[in-house]
Amino acid sequence: MGSTSDSYSSSQETLATLESNTIYDFIPSYINLGFQKELKLKIIRDTTNPVVLEILGSEKFGFIENKVRSKCWHCLLSRQLRLENSRNNDVLIDHPDENQINLDVKRSFSFVENTKHRDFLKDLLSRIIIGIFRKHPKLRYYQGYHDIVSLFILVWHSNEEVDLSLSTMILSAVDAQFDTVFECVEIFTLVYLRDFMMNSLDFPIDQLKLISHLIKEKDPDLYHSMKLDKISPFFAISSILTFFSHDLKPTNENSIIWEIFDLIISKNSSFIPILIFTNFILMQKQKLIDQINLNTENFDNETDLIHASIQQILLTSISNENFFFKIMTITRLNYNRDVKLLSKVLFDSRIINCGSPLLTTAKGNNKTLFDTKDIDNLIDKQIKINGTRKNIRQTNTRFNIVLYHVINNKHLLVKLSILVGLLAIISKFSNRNLIWETYHKTKKVWLDPLHCLLHNPTSYLYSNNN
Amino acid sequence: MSGNGKNYDSIMKILLIGDSGVGKSCLLVRFVEDKFSPSFITTIGIDFKIKTVDINGKKVKLQLWDTAGQERFRTITTAYYRGAMGIILVYDVTDERTFTNIKQWFKTVNDHANDDAQLLLVGNKSDMDTRLVTYEQGEALAKELGLPFVESSAKDDQNVNEIFFTLARLIQDKIDSNKLSDAKNTNDGNVNIKSSSSSMSKANCC
Lengths: 466, 206
Ligand SMILES: Nc1nc2c(ncn2[C@@H]2O[C@H](COP(=O)(O)OP(=O)(O)O)[C@@H](O)[C@H]2O)c(=O)[nH]1
Ligand SMILES: [Mg+2]
Prior knowledge:
Chain A is mostly helical and 466 residues long. Chain A folds into 4 domains: 2-65, no CATH class; 89-192, no CATH class; 196-400, no CATH class; 409-465. Chain A has 23 helices and 2 strands. The longest helix of chain A has 37 residues, at 372-408. In chain A, 37% of the residues are buried. Residues 1-20 and 435-466 of chain A have low confidence and may be disordered. Chain B has 206 residues and is α/β, with parallel strands linked by helices. Chain B has a single domain, classed as 3-Layer(aba) Sandwich (Rossmann fold). Chain B has helices spanning 24-33, 74-77, 96-100, 102-112, 135-145, 160-181, 193-196, 198-203, and strands spanning 10-17, 46-55, 58-67, 86-92, 118-124, 149-151. In chain B, helix 5 links the parallel strand 5 and strand 6 (149-151). Chain B is globular and about 45 Å long. The model of chain B is unreliable at 185-206 (pLDDT under 50). The structure holds guanosine-5'-diphosphate and magnesium ion (MG). Guanosine-5'-diphosphate binds at residues 20-26, 38-40, 43, 69, 124-125, 127-128, 153-155 of chain B. Chain A: InterPro entries: Rab-GAP-TBC_dom, Rab-GAP_TBC_sf, TBC20/Gyp8-like.
């Protein structure tokens, strides 16, 4: 463990400050982790004040166990968005993404060993996701959303014995629980995930740029070693789209992914996943640079090289959960400072769309209770911006494809140059040529500086000096 | 870094593309880890795997890039087409739509991949009795597009190794014939990625 933190502690933070976690300062160090958790659990259970819950959830251990967590999430989320008509089961129109949803539901909960329980969870997953999209038909499904919803389902359904005996329980109790899970997923979706649910991935790709930006601010050398000035950090897309629930599976109650979501919900902040990914890179700096050097000869281009290197390091880091707990500590500790570092890009260069959760509903430490109308307005605004963006991108892509083919195709390049040459010769010899005439009439020196220079060097120089 | 214990003779970048759910990831997992699980996880964005194989007595390191099938990921996945020496286009023999979409995938390849990339068409899930696309239809499409064709099953481990070995051999043949025609490219028998494609050397110059 020591080696992983060394490189990072040398850059400003010292381990001493890392370990100081306000609420634990009064707990004597000889009290072991298990007992600390027990103590915290007691405090959470007795807390009725949501503001205190927010603080408890954003600190070490988060909400500790799912039985308590479900209540805390529900309490905090319903203070972030007030849903009207939460019971809404008569929408029957299919959503265009239902085919994709079914494909992904089939591939969910692969880490749940009991097949009966897995089927139970998949059925629930399908009902919730389809319910969300039928209720909010303007939103589009993306692969990865199912990982987030799966996580929510497990908060309420991680105990297989209880779930498998559900069929014998009273229906109204089952229904009430379904409604609570649904409500929490719905609020979380509308408050945190809107950027990802347009009809393109442009907004999440924008969010990825914040990772590059933060690394540039905090470690310029690493920024250059990782060629982040040249490549898009696509390597982080699955972590950002799923808030790490794709990489870090909730295999048991102590899995790190719970703490990540506890932190996001308690802080009401969509910045958390971006900060976690950045801290992962900063803390693995030396390993990453070594890996990149080792790989350099083997890869065709920088996008491939960096992606493969990061994926290799990420995989080894995931298998070491202690390391991720350390990342969480640093993320909590530097939260305010890092968000401040980002605010410059957020407001000056406008990388992020103005309806984004990062700037509105999940910008962190929010004190506003939004309602359905606010969200509707934000969604409409975002759809509009995204539509314009998508058009621009498609035109650019088409242009790039043509350019790419011209550059890569020697024959085409030769033909094109011959064509240009021919055109030049034709225009030279034909005085009645349209191009030639407009050329002369306009007498704009900048249209062809070389031409002017050859014909009349003095006038060209003269006009340039003016 | 210079010439240190290289345990392979050449590297090939290979890409798997096709609609979501056709079995790209299952084929890859079967090939690399010799496993099959019906609830194997969804691919989000791009995944990278490596496997070293033996082709004509040479150790070839295969760089395998698995892609997400959902349309919206295309902006991201096409960024990884560059420099691919082999591209596997996969459809599901039990799902006609994935078969008709192959033409769209073929176009995407033409737009984003190197011109000399070796393609291969694969009809997967041949084990299923709910087949809707016949072998002949697959073969006809392959002929029309000028691609070699294989039917496979990741589940029953039918033709999975063949997919990757056929592709690797075709690429190796291309490299060898390129080397014959291009006498300058003789770096002590080591065929590496950089000498095999014109656009790659360009990408490496900076
Ligand atoms: N019967 C059968 N099912 C398969 C086969 N390959 C994949 N599948 C199923 O198809 C689903 C989707 O496969 P996956 O590899 O995730 O598809 P991808 O989206 O193309 O990567 C898997 O969950 C498997 O259940 C196959 O060869 N035979
Ligand atoms: Mg896949």
